[in-house]
Design a protein that fits this description.
Alkaline Phosphatase, subunit A, two-stranded antiparallel ribbon
């Protein structure tokens, strides 16, 4: 009789449970280490990109006032949109009582720029100078037509809450490039516009994935993460002893309960300890030369501004953070768009262009993807059935513009086409799932294989949709 047979015949119920719990605990502990390594869904031998910086303009920038000019709007100014095009897609109910939905021409001047002749509004002079650096996707489309589901859809691939966000999927699939910082970092700036659309932190949630894959929001100012500083000012060796004691207790609990949440807690304690040394250096901008502020603008000196966050995004990219999400609010222009859109552009234009050029001059744009866009676009008809100088535009999901740069996207490409009234895509549509699939492809991920089993089925970022848009790629 061998040792295994003896053990099986003599083991009692209590000993069996102890051995089982310890074994599961060991599996969970090994999972912490495994989480640092790429998921087996990595199938591309040589991915083009390592990281994404997503400049999310929350509220829906008006593509027809910024990137997609339509001369016929002037000719048909004031006419009912649906006497000119066939209604397709969902509309909001904001104009439900209006007799007509009158066409309103943009009041802003457009010019062609770069070798590609891309049209850009006078409101974005800095981005206009570098159109050869990014790919302009005129034909992005989405499904939801209201803010919360549309932002959720753009961030998680589904319009209902509870799914992991894009950054969480990348953390789960690709592991960490820098163990001293989170793989997924979030920065929020606020546009100077009342009644901004709220940003719910579930937009950067890990959903049903482990909590270690959730986005970590950095606050503005000298203390980006609360409670990292030790008020007792104890030396590192003493703090390490404290963490080791806590981890020993957590590991005992993990061996007893085999609860994955305890494994996550152990890893997060370790991350917090490492961030005590890494975050202060990240937030200390004293090493930035004056040329940095000339490039990004003086607003980059002010914590919490979009320009400051763009500069922080570059510093995070230098430190190999995988997914850097910037949110800038205030783009929801139902009323008096001419009073607000120029201000949002002024807040974001210089820093957006500066980030792309800064990454390029440092050799980081080759393996960094920069995305600029919102959750949907705006209509070419007036919000309130009135044709006036202070026009506003409603939500529009059928077509809107997204900019992408670096990481394997074709620089200078103008992709897709919308109809004469910017109501529908007429050529080369890029639905959100296709955009996600393409971004993941450049990071070396087969979007159909990066899955997670939850409640009896396999989930993925692209749900049951999505195809790689190879015409966008170099």
């Amino acid at each position: 009789m061998n040792d295994l047979e003896i053990t099986l015949q003599t083991i009692n119920r209590r000993r069996m449970l102890q051995l089982g719990a310890a074994g599961l605990g060991g599996i969970a502990l090994s999972g912490i280490e495994a989480a640092q390594s790429p998921h087996p869904a990595i199938v591309t031998p040589s991915p083009r990109a390592k990281r994404i910086i997503y400049l999310f303009q929350a509220g829906g920038p008006s593509q027809v006032d910024l990137f997609d000019p339509k001369p016929l709007l002037t000719q048909h100014h004031g006419k009912d949109m649906f006497s000119l095009v066939k209604q397709a897609g969902r509309l909001t109910n904001f104009n439900a009582n209006g007799a007509i939905r009158p066409v309103v021409a943009s009041k802003y001047k457009f010019d062609q720029h770069g070798k590609n002749g891309a049209w850009v509004s006078e409101l974005l002079p800095n981005l206009a100078k570098i159109t050869d650096e990014f790919c302009t996707i005129l034909s992005t489309s989405t499904s939801p037509v209201n803010h919360d589901p549309a932002m959720t859809f753009m961030q998680t691939g589904h319009n209902l809450p509870g799914r992991p966000s894009f950054g969480s999927w990348l953390s789960y699939g690709l592991g960490s490039m820098n163990r001293n910082l989170p793989e997924f970092v979030v920065l929020v700036s606020i546009g100077e516009l009342p009644n901004n659309q709220p940003l719910n932190n579930r937009l950067w949630s890990s959903g049903f994935l482990s909590g270690r894959h959730a986005g970590v929001r950095l606050r503005s100012g000298a203390e980006p993460v609360l409670y990292l500083n030790d008020p007792t000012q104890k030396p590192v060796t003493e703090r390490r002893k404290m963490f080791d004691a806590i981890n020993k207790l957590n590991q005992e609990e993990l061996a007893r309960s085999a609860d994955p949440a305890v494994a996550t807690r152990i890893e997060q304690y370790e991350m917090a300890f490492r961030m005590q040394s890494s975050v202060p250096g990240l937030a200390d901008l004293s090493d930035e030369p004056e040329s940095t502020y000339k490039l990004y603008g003086e607003e980059a000196r002010k914590p919490g501004t979009f320009a400051f966050n763009c500069l922080m995004a570059r510093r995070l990219a230098e430190r190999d953070v995988r997914f850097i999400q910037l949110y800038h609010t205030g783009w929801d222009h139902h009323f008096n768009l001419p009073a607000h859109l120029p201000n949002r552009c002024k807040e974001t234009d210089q820093a957006s262009a500066a980030l792309i050029m800064d990454l390029k001059q440092r050799g980081l744009l080759e393996d960094t993807i920069v995305v600029w866009g919102g959750e949907f676009g705006r209509t070419t008809f007036s919000q309130d059935s009135k044709v006036q100088e202070s026009y506003g535009r409603d939500h529009h999901a059928n077509c809107f513009t997204t900019l992408v740069a670096g990481g394997g996207f074709k620089p200078g490409l103008i992709h897709g086409e919308t109809d004469d009234f910017c109501y529908s895509v007429v050529k080369d549509e890029v639905p959100v799932h296709d955009l996600h699939a393409t971004l993941m492809h450049l990071l070396g991920i087969d979007h159909e294989r990066l899955t997670f089993r939850h409640q009896g089925r396999d989930y993925r970022l692209t749900d049951v949709h999505g195809k790689v848009v190879k015409s966008l790629l170099v």
